[in-house]
Amino acid sequence: MMRFDIITLFPxxxxxxxxxxxxxxxxxxxxxxxxxxxxxDFTKDKHKTVDDTPYGGGAGMVLMCDPIFQSVESIKKQxxxxxxxxxxxxxxxxxxxxxxxxxxxQLIMICGHYEGFDERIRxxxxxxxxxxxxxxxxxxxxxxxxxxxxVTRLLPGTLGKDESALHDSFSSGLLEYPxxxxxxxxRGMKVPEVLQSGNHKEIEKYRKKxxxxxxxxxxxxxxxxxxxxxxxxxxxxxxNEFKHELEI
Length: 248
Known about the structure:
- It is a single chain.
- The chain is α/β, with parallel strands linked by helices.
- It has 2 domains: 2-162, SPOUT methyltransferase, trefoil knot domain (Alpha/beta knot); 169-246, tRNA(m1g37)methyltransferase, domain 2 (Trp Operon Repressor, Chain A, Orthogonal Bundle), CATH 1.10.1270.
- 38% of the residues lie in helices and 17% in strands.
- It contains 9 helices and 9 strands.
- Strands 2-1-6-5-7 form a 5-stranded parallel beta sheet, sandwiched between helices. A two-stranded antiparallel sheet has the order 3-4. Strands 8-9 form a two-stranded antiparallel ribbon.
- A hairpin with a 2-residue loop joins strand 8 (185-186) and strand 9.
- Helix 7 packs across helix 9.
- It is elongated, with a radius of gyration of 22 Å.
């Protein structure tokens, strides 16, 4: 069972999201457990203060060391665990990191608020710092939920069919191909005939080429990485066909 321990000032945000959909089912089936720890429970004053003004002055408040340290230390650790700090200063989160984290038995995540953390939290706890994008959020809860969601999808059994996650965008380094369902025609827009043919080999070929095309059109950075990667014979043929069609 994968265990997620989230250190957060707003445990209800984590608990509400994780009670629904795939994550909710994964908890009921004991594929994962999601637990929250509130730093306010480790404060000593009547106001349960977890933040203070920064040394040297400046706007905003900074999370104090002791409630965070005690929160981390209160969690029962499994041997194969990873401590993560959600911060805009961290390494950009990606599907590759999600795959890496899915091999852990336990993820402990610290969600920040206010103007940041006392630097000694970084120095003393030495967490892995992760960012979910180049923008600033009110707190780290959305980042933690993104990690929980993306990692849970990769765990065997959580999606019903384990191969479902293999076709997600980014799993192969490419964006996902277009998907269709019934009816076969809607307002003049038709489902491609190959998808209705029942020829699974041609369908797979079509989908892979559409993934290449969509990545080329929308994410040239990912396309260039794919183009230079070590490709299978089949992928090389499809890539060359795509280039020939576009005359590139």
